[in-house]
Specification:
Layout: E1 4-5, H1 6-13, E2 16-19, E3 25-26, E4 28-30, E5 40-43, H2 56-61, E6 66-69, E7 82-85, H3 89-104, E8 107-112, H4 117-128, E9 134-135, H5 146-151, E10 160-164, H6 172-180, E11 184-187, H7 195-198, H8 201-209, E12 220-224, E13 240-245, E14 252-259, E15 265-271, E16 274-280, H9 287-299, H10 305-313, E17 323-327, E18 330-334, H11 341-352, E19 358-363, H12 373-386, E20 391-395, H13 400-408, E21 412-416, H14 419-422, H15 426-429, E22 434-439, H16 447-455
Parallel strand pairs: 4-5, 5-6, 6-7, 8-10, 8-11, 9-10, 11-12, 12-13, 13-14, 18-22, 19-20, 19-22, 20-21
Antiparallel strand pairs: 1-3, 2-7, 14-15, 15-16, 17-18
Helix pairs in contact: 3-6, 4-9, 4-10, 11-12, 12-13
Amino acid sequence: MDAITIREIVDATSGQLLSGKEDAVVMGVCTDSRIFQQGDLFVALLGETTDAHRFVRQVAEQGGKTFLISERDAAEALADANVILVQDTLAGLQALTHYYLDKIGVGKIAVTGSVGKTSTRDMVYYILSEKYKTGRPIKNYNSDVGIPLTVFTFDSTTEMAVLEEGMEHAGEIHRLADMTRPEVAIITNVGISHLENLGSRENIYRAKMEITDFFGRDNVLIINESCDLLKRSRIHGDYRVITVGETGAEDYVVSNIRDMGLEGVNFTLTTGGESREFRLNVPGAHNALNAALAVAACARYSVTMDQAAEGLLKLQLTGKRLKVREARGIRVLDDSYNAAPDSVKSAIRTMEATPAERRVAILGAMNELGDDTPALHYEVGKYAAEHGISLVIGIEPKAAEIVRGAREAGCNALYFDEKEDLYPELPKLLKEGDLVLTKASMTRHFWEIADKIING
């Protein structure tokens, strides 16, 4: 991070300097007292369960010198410190993020979508890195707080920034887009994640489209026209729209997708009369479209198809996404980070395309699906039975419908109330030559099952 003066923080946040020196500087931004480092600005956020103003004294005792607070009384514990008072510390943090992005002059590509946004973000990062010094989110940061923490890891040597913008409710992406003001945005798809909160796919579409709320004539939106709700004809903004798809009518046409299971994916990408073969060393045929979206976005910054192909060969996906692990002759496809019906089916297709003695799917809850939750879980179980899965194991109550769907489609299926109930049975259920998928919504921590299989 480049140094920021106290005066800059005061001006950017419309704050009031209660004490301290305007020419003092900070070299980092922190919202967690447990990982505070000297030289950081400590932002005292008010969470649903915790008020970080409780920890300002502790941070001061650790050497903290600069604080952004919204409770004036907290300043009493901060003698000899730079203390900036604002009305809302989260809004102040976001305003400072907006200012800092402008200060360092970085190019910005933002990615959103119901499924595949983190993978696509990673692809954009590896492609851009062939030509530019590029920054991307640390961990899976894509929220009101996560994006600022990511941005403050960049400095003035960073030429391009790849940002991920997530949401659970309408209005959230609008706020993130206002903070980041991307030049290019990608929408991977409009699925049914967050249906419980937003009520319909049309509402999800509108929420995703908030990423364009601050677009003008110089901005570009990249969309996946293979998604039924993402069509150029539906978009009427004063900005350029670039389409990706498989029909042959899009600006970037994906064809000849060859799913090689765990070995990866090959595909052809055609645009402007130029065709190029691409290879991904990560599994999942759906990643061909994600990669094409990334190539289209990076082309706006004069990255060639050859450079894009080289970057994609280096791709490593963040977190527990289609990670292949092996122990004692058992291969585990650890895709435990999150789950929605489309992503579970995609993982099952990857299993189906991979040679194995037997294929086992250990599946859990898919969250935020609203009234269709039972039917969608049942559908996934039926799909697994029809696409090469020999044994389905459902964990926790929502997955009971997965088990029912699998059984009624003729597949062997078992149910466990909790993942801990499964652990003693694993040595009896799994055997050498098995290919095992672990997948559920992130809150279920299904990577712990993958760890248990690998570590024994």
